[in-house]
Structure formats: C-alpha cells, structure tokens
Amino acid sequence: MATNMKSMALNMVRRKVMTRNPSRTFLVTAALMVPSLAVAQINLQQMPGYVPVASSTAGSDRNLGNSTGLRVVPENFEKLRLAPGFLIKLSVLDDSDFSGEFRIDEHGDIAVPVLGTVPVAGLTAAEARQQISKRLIDNQILKDPQVSFSILEYTAPQVTIIGEVAAPGKYPLLVANDLVDVLALAGGPTRLAGNEVRITPADGKTKTILLHYSKASDPEEVKDVLVHPGDTVQVDRAGIVYVLGAVNRPGGYVMQEEGTLSVLQAISLANGTSTAASTGTIYLMRRQPDGTEIDIALRYKKISQGKLADFRLHATDILFVPTSKMKSILTESKGVITSAASASIYAGILY
Q1: DSSP 8-state symbol, 131
Q2: Which domains can be identified in the chain, with CATH numbers?
Q3: What is the pLDDT of residue 206?
C-alpha cells in the first residue's frame, strides 16, 4: 500500500514538472529517488557555461519557490542595458493583464497589453521597471503598482581585442570597464607588445583613441580609461631592431617600454660583440618612409668609448657588426636583409 502511494506521488510530481519544464523531469525524479542527487543539480548550475535566469527584483527566488537552486550571474549584471532580442518577464501584483513574457523588438520596444508600446532599449532592468510603474500611474490605471521586471534571455555584448595579446578574440563585456581589466580578458599583452593601444568606439563615428600603455605602466594611470561594449581594442606590436653579424646572440630585439633603443643598448642586448668582430665601424641599414633603403656607417669604437654620441635606432633598423674577414658582405646588402627576416626575436630587458 505504501509503495503504491509513493509511486502515485512520484508520477504526480513528474507530470507537474513535465507541464512546466520537460527538461527538468529527470533531475526531479532522480532527486526524489536518490536525495543526494539534488546537490549534484546545484553544482551543475555553478559550472562554466550555465546560463542563469536573473531577476532584477528582490525576492524573485521566493516567487519561484527556490526550485532552481543556486544562481550565478555575470559581474555587473544589474548594469546590463536592455537591447533588441532580449526576452523579459513582466508581472504586476494582483493584475494579470500586464503579466507575460515579451521579446524586445528591433526598435527597442515591448508591446504591453493596455499600455501599448513601451521603449526599453538602453535601460537597465531597474530603470525599465520604474518606467512601467510610472506609466501605470500616469495613465491612472493603478495607484501603487507593484511591478516585477526580470531578464530571461539576453544577448551579451562583446568587445574585440586584437593585436599583441595572449588570446585575441571577442569577449563578453556587459558594461563599460577599465582598460586594464579588458586586456586581462585576453590574457594581457604579450612580450612583443609595444607601448601603444588603440581603442576604436563601436559607433563608428567617434575617432580612435591612441593611448600610451605598456606592461610596465602603472595601472592607476589608465584606470579612468573605459572600454565600452562593442569597442575594438588593438595592442600594437613593439618596434624591433635587428642585430646581426659578429655578436654573441644575433637576432631581433624588441624596443624598450618607452619605445626607444640606441646602438649601445642594442649591442648590449645581443650580449656584446664577438671576439672576431671588427668594432671600428659597424653598419646600419634603414628603410626610409618612401621604401628606399640606406646604409649608414657608424664609428662604433668611438661611440663605445664615449667620444661620439650614441645613435638612436628606429623600428625595423638592421645593425650589422662585421668581422675583419666579412666586410665584403656589405657589398650585397640583400643578404643581410634576408638574414634579418629569419632571425629569432628576443624581448630582452636592459638593467
């Protein structure tokens, strides 16, 4: 007898859940049969990828009877601005005429019975609730309406992060956030990142913002720089100077955080000249803005002795240190340029 009553009760619960949400039937049935599985249901809702149903009003869990267990919402969800495509749930206490689920149309409006078209795009859930309450009062429909406004589905706005970051791509960004936190979404700048970041606003009308920022920058200096949903953030690559020939570690070297590098600094990053180097004169190959290339002879020995001023390098410069037996290679500068193209890149730091 007890077994039959238990079976009947289980079937009643199953039918009730199927009516409301067929996908939860298995979990509820399993939880009734094995009580420990109810804890597993809560843990599943805490896993990444779980899309919660968030409410903008206090006490919404009580209205649902806490049947959904724990809920996890994104950070700053309460500041999320409504946009076309959102699905919202509206209810007014003791008046079912206004209750229901509404999809925000392409114009940013919802069509509420009796009230008609209500523009909500660009508002937060709390602001939309206040607007509907005010309309009910202004139209003398209700004196003190108790309005509940919940977001059931939303399309998360994104920010695009490209350039020299660890993981370029599109990332959800519900509300405006500071530049440091936004770059952290993509793993932060890489070792080849330069000291310039470009922020292109989503509206396509505002000019691109160019910022001086690098890994060595003080986060406090850029804390007021905000990135908005839909913006594109580009981290430029640092300038690279190539040091080839008779040095101990030939290769390409990233220019320092301030974006400068001199001849002495570049040779130092390459671990100095080798024993076979001819240090009297070294050679600099530079590409001009018009695409032409020039060769500049530098009196390195006198520069290293302090008799001549150090020479400032430009991005993509090629510094070549010859040996006493290799000076003739300069007659064919294309060979040096080819070597630069295949050189290893180092992000050396000067102390």
Answers
A1: H
A2: 77-153 (3.30.1950.10), 158-237 (3.10.560.10), 240-346 (3.10.560.10)
A3: 82
Tell me the per-residue pLDDT of 111-156, one tens digit each, with 9 for 90 and over.
998 888 999 998 999 999 999 999 999 988 888 999 999 999 888 7
Task: State the burial class of residue 331 (Cβ atoms within 10 Å of its Cβ: 0-12, 13-18, 19+).
Answer: exposed
Please give the structure tokens belonging to residue 15: 């039918």
Strand 177-178 to 226-227 pairing: antiparallel
What's the burial of 133, exposed, middle or buried (CB within 10 Å: 0-12/13-18/19+)?
Answer: middle
The residue-averaged pLDDT of 279-303 equals: 91
Pairing type for strands 109-112 and 54-55 reads unpaired
Contact in structure between 65 and 28 (CB atoms under 8 Å)? no
In one-letter notation, the amino acid at residue 135 is R
Q: What pTM value is reported for the model?
A: 0.58
Give me the percent of the chain exceeding a pLDDT of 90.
Answer: 38
Strand boundaries in the chain, DSSP class E:
54-55, 87-92, 95-103, 109-112, 116-119, 147-153, 158-163, 169-172, 177-178, 193-200, 209-212, 226-227, 232-237, 240-245, 251-254, 282-287, 293-298, 318-321, 345-346
Name the nearest CA neighbour of 345 among 236, 212, 191: 191
Yes or no: say if 238 and 258 are a contact pair by the CB < 8 Å rule.
Answer: no
Q: Distance between CA atoms of 184 and 124, rounded to whole angstroms?
A: 26
Give the distance from CA 30 to its chain's centroid: 40
Cα–Cα separations (whole angstroms), residue 202 to 164, 208, 230, 339: 20, 10, 5, 41
Query: Token match 């007021």: residue?
Result: 224
Structure-token pair, residue 200: 């292109």
